[in-house]
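>> received
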Amino acid sequence: MDKNSYHTIEATSVAEFRDRGSRFIAYAYPLKDTHDFKEKLAALKKEHPKAVHHCFAYRLGFTGDVFRSSDDGEPSGTAGRPILGQIDSKGLTNVLIVVVRYFGGTLLGVPGLINAYKTVAADVLSNNPIIEKPVLEYFRLQYDYTRMNEVMRVVKHFDGVVVKQDMQLFCVLEVGIPKIVVEQVLGKWKDMQGWKWGSWRLRIQLPQRHTKVPSVILTKRVGGLSGLAVFLVDLMYSLCTLCFARRSEA
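>> returned
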């Protein structure tokens, strides 16, 4: 994996391992963020209310330092670490594995537990195609409706991903652009007739546990009341985003 791409899994998969009456059911998921993790874990706990343990591990992002593992009551180091080890052994990120255990009446001991969680985590990943995806940088653009085709033509040509689109007074588009072609895309947008870099550029660094890179607000320079309206909308958006980041850090 290079700095412009990463490896992850394509879809959800399930695997099961049994040892001396205990059942270990592993679920592997592509993971977007920590909120996505909480939802998936809560759903599994609801689906398996009688299970004695819901152990898990995940890794997020591209720097290698956003991860978490849990033994959920098992002896320390016997569940979460072996699960995370299988994710890392394949060089994966944006992946969650949860292992649900139903106790069979016989204690497995530390070696038996490590083997069970490691084996079922490896099995659930082997059942899932591994794919390579581009690292995306995220941008927010504002433009009037007459420029829609021009903007979208560039996004589609460079395999960009539309994250959010809002059409009210003017168009607001949030897109993810493959990192390897970012400079080309910015050059295309900058060269569009009637477009100039905005008179201000705002960078917002979200908390580290968020997977998105800093957002860049790119505006079309306009004058008079229209320019004031664009500035005020950008200012309100920026303040809301910063407030959200601070609440997330709390």
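>> The radius of gyration is 23 Å.
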